């Protein structure tokens, strides 16, 4: 590692951290209010869920509460635990202080930005541009608030950034490659285990590791480090997922209920025909537009008679037989993706003096642009994906495979998550599609950076040839005969 590069990296880290902390705390702290799911993470910490309407304001301090049990699995719990211990060391009496959590996450985000910038083979000026673009994504108002919340999206965003930075560093040689491997392990463990949806990253992560190839490395020298990363991440993920409810199996029926009665049978299309196609009686209309916990269908005798129709297989069969309706649902999913901001989740504390559910718009660059074109849905989203994919293919063809690997790692997850959320969840579409919008924005940034010119390799100065010394005949030694 050259000292000049280390100084540059330290400068990027310090400036990034400073920008993120100012963005977080000035003029008042911002976070993301709880949509009602926060208790699943607070249980593990013994935190008390507030009695107030949780989505109105951000509760930056959670006191101790009665013990409860949750099988919910999320790497966000690791960050919460770290924040809880750090808060105790700093003298906080709270079981979880979101100000401490936000500060810790800002440090980790700054590490991810620095790693990605140092890994890019760009000039200093273009590296600065890369840092600015990455910070604009991470600090965007649609994403940043989750870094100080009891929700698990923040862990997903952080994990994807750290994994991308680590994969890029693994293409370098020397000590950088090993630092990249360590960062990849940390990022992948956080990102893959953030939510049940992020488990989709597993095959993409495996493919990315297979494609990693540092310059000049062949055979065992090429495969040893990626194999070690794969073993650590695979074993760690297996252990984590075995500790609770893998893939949130307990919510499968609830998700299908929402798909059927919020998405497919929404009361705005041919309700009777859709119910018949799903094998449901006309009396099922009473559940349209109602949530699982509001309707409490398991207490309804009629529902129990046809509950076996509220299944993935039945929903997939409906989609296969109704392509036009499926396209309409995908269009709504694209609108939700580009909308970016759930309207009912506040960004400020109750002591801020702002009205309930007030939201901050300090850095609305990517989310602001996407919200402007949100009504167009797929008309905008698909071309953005295609343009990003073109840049990724170009990177592979121009021997800049590190860009291509990261671009497709993020892009393919975004596309897969979009389909799963639009067709398989049916409720809170804007919030759930944040895991589509974030990797789309991050992939777009790396795709744009791949178009920047690489610095020319240093050219060694030609050694000036010594002038030929003329030898006069008078001083020339006589030639000796070959024969004696």
From TrEMBL:
Transmembrane segments: 7-26, 98-120, 127-148, 178-194, 223-241, 365-391, 403-422, 434-452
UniProt keyword annotations, A-Z: Membrane, Transmembrane, Transmembrane helix
Lineage: Bacteria, Bacillati, Actinomycetota, Actinomycetes, Pseudonocardiales
Name by which UniProt lists this protein: Transmembrane protein
